[in-house]
Design goal:
Strand order of the largest sheet of chain A: 1-2
Strand content of chain A: 5-15%
Helix content of chain B: 40-55%
Largest interface: A-B, 22 and 25 residues
Strand content of chain B: 15-25%
Helix content of chain A: 40-55%
Radius of gyration of chain A: 13 Å
Oligomer: heterodimer
Shape of chain A: globular
Number of helices of chain B: 4
């Protein structure tokens, strides 16, 4: 069955975020995905998910180094509903 | 007209400060001065001072020697004795260009997180003292930004078509 809600990789990102209520950084998601997410892909996906309203990003005011602080992503309620709906329909989040 | 009491090396003590005098082997280290002037009435003493400054790592080679009958003058160009320099975080210029070229949403959602990750890893490596790997992370970060932009554009075109 086709996926009307989000792509498989987007569902993968949503499922990773569901397991971490305090949020995750993009690199943490890449490491947790066991190679299914690439560094170049994750922020494209997160950008699209944020535009759709399925994730929310929060940036600390200051990092503990001179560079930019990293955004931390959390799952929103619509994102949780999308994930639940996809799982109810039997859409696998394991597909790459 | 100079008198002999003014022989020596005179250096600026700051932009609004007075000139201070020291012998060639007593020059203060770790300071930045606009310029220094060597005053000696004997040529051989002037040349000795120049040679001493040339051998010193803190002062540059003098550029000009003017000689008169009694007074030998050399003007030494400025140098920063403190060799630290200001360095920008990697990707700063790229961010400046992309913030101009891209929409604010694209820039905030795709470029800034990628560069923030690069900074995180870059400074971790610098902290660990691993500068070559830090340089590689900076290079890889720039390539990643290009990949993110290309992938983002491909996705945007797919959304338009399908």
């Amino acid at each position: 069955m086709g996926n009307p809600f989000a792509s498989a990789k987007e569902l993968l990102v949503l499922s990773l975020l569901r397991d971490e209520p305090q949020g995750m950084y993009g690199l943490e998601m890449v490491n947790a995905s066991d190679g299914r997410l690439a560094r170049g892909t994750v922020y494209v996906l997160l950008g699209r998910l944020e535009e759709k309203g399925y994730v929310h990003s929060r940036v600390a005011k200051k990092a503990d180094h001179p560079g930019l602080p990293r955004p931390r992503y959390t799952l929103t309620a619509p994102g949780r509903r999308v994930l639940d709906a996809a799982e109810m329909l039997g859409v696998s989040t394991a597909r790459a | 007209m100079l008198d002999d009491d003014r022989e020596g090396i005179w250096y600026d003590d700051g932009p609004n400060g007075p000139f201070r005098r020291a012998e060639a082997d007593q020059l203060p280290s770790g300071r930045q001065v606009p310029h220094a002037v060597i005053w000696y009435t004997e040529l051989n003493r002037c040349q000795s001072a120049i040679a001493l400054l040339n051998n010193s790592r803190q002062w540059p080679r003098p550029v000009t020697v003017l000689s008169a009958a009694d007074v030998k003058i050399t003007v030494v160009p400025p140098i920063a004795a403190d060799r630290s320099r200001i360095v920008r975080a990697p990707g700063s210029r790229l961010m400046a260009w992309l913030s101009f070229l891209l929409s604010p949403a694209w820039y905030r959602l795709r470029v800034v997180p990628t560069i923030a990750d690069m900074h995180e890893e870059y400074y971790q490596e610098l902290k660990a003292g691993n500068q070559p790997h830090a340089c590689w992370i900076a290079i890889r970060g720039h390539i990643l930004v290009a990949k993110v932009l290309v992938k983002g554009m491909v996705e945007a075109v797919k959304d338009l078509i399908f």
